[in-house]
């Protein structure tokens, strides 16, 4: 590929991104613009991205690949039918160490940490004292009194400070800045990875363990954020390029950028922090009650005991009290509807706002998610989005838009 053009990727990508990358969330574009003047960090795969011809953009303080020469749509569809490799090393990784680590971490989230078996992973919600979402994260019980945690890249500094301030007196909170993180996603991910690490095919969704993959020391979990089967691999940064090249050498695997990662997660009905959930959103408003196990709910053996518990549990127990609800939406006339678009009832009353929206490459139909008044949250409800002054008909629908393909 032509690698002769050595331009300032920050200035070039920020100028091009809003126009040339219509599938990117507005929050990514705004982050790129805000970060353009700041020194950018790079992931351990930066040189490889450039070698592969990636368009690089500032994201969460890093220079990251938004797409490769084949283009976003091709990357999206390849991940759905084969396997895509994502660099997600901008994410935050940390470890909680000590016999009280699980109990301490459980005081920060409305989920069951203590009861998570060794070798299992769980989705969690880090909450404020007002019961709103500071961040969403994944955590894995490594055994030997160690919990491995992955948080969103844009939130990692604040999350680390929050966790340290709240529980560092009960367990060691160890940041892992020298760890890289790769995600291999798609129905043929297991085929490709098993050639390099026999035995990973025995893992099931949200389980994991330590594996040597192409000679690299990895913590592998069967998880991801595309709705597809796949794996996330945490490993020392110094080994990341060797692993990435080994994975890309497999016939099923192609490199995938942030643009397709966004479209894949939206089709899967998964929230993007900063768009679909943020520090103003409660779990029930975000339709994330499924992530709160019974043991932490009213009447459970360890009910409450987390920040904002009274508000969070009251909303779970009385859903009619919710001021708004996250829903899925499909555009009925093929017109893409972007984030921050106003949603109205048929008689012109404002009822909500779109938080994510784009043409769904798998469905060949525009999809979105957003928040509406509870009276308009039932599947099948007709609403309208106001796009450039024109009412675009939409219908509330169940999520995910594309059925999940997890290996359970």
TrEMBL record:
Record: residues binding substrate: 232
| The reaction(s) this protein catalyses | N(6)-[(R)-S(8)-aminomethyldihydrolipoyl]-L-lysyl-[protein] + (6S)-5,6,7,8-tetrahydrofolate = N(6)-[(R)-dihydrolipoyl]-L-lysyl-[protein] + (6R)-5,10-methylene-5,6,7,8-tetrahydrofolate + NH4(+)
Q: What is its EC number?
A: 2.1.2.10
Q: In terms of domain of life, where is this protein from?
A: Bacteria
Can you provide one Gene Ontology molecular function annotated for this UniProt record?
A: transaminase activity
Q: What keywords is this UniProt entry annotated with?
A: Aminotransferase, Transferase
Give all residue intervals belonging to the Aminomethyltransferase C-terminal domain.
324-402
Q: Name one GO cellular component term.
A: glycine cleavage complex
Keyword Ion transport appears in the UniProt entry: no
User: Domain GCVT N-terminal spans what residues?
Assistant: 47-294
User: InterPro entries given for it?
Assistant: GcvT, GcvT/YgfZ/DmdA, GcvT/YgfZ_C, GcvT_C, GCVT_N, TrmE/GcvT-like
What's an example Gene Ontology biological process for this entry? glycine catabolic process
Q: Which residues cross the membrane?
A: none
Q: Which SUPFAM superfamilies match?
A: Aminomethyltransferase beta-barrel domain, Folate-binding domain
> Pfam families in the record, alphabetically?
GCV_T (PF01571), GCV_T_C (PF08669)
What family is reported?
Belongs to the GcvT family.
Protein name according to UniProt: aminomethyltransferase
Natural source organism: Verminephrobacter eiseniae (strain EF01-2)
Taxonomy of origin reads: Bacteria, Pseudomonadati, Pseudomonadota, Betaproteobacteria, Burkholderiales
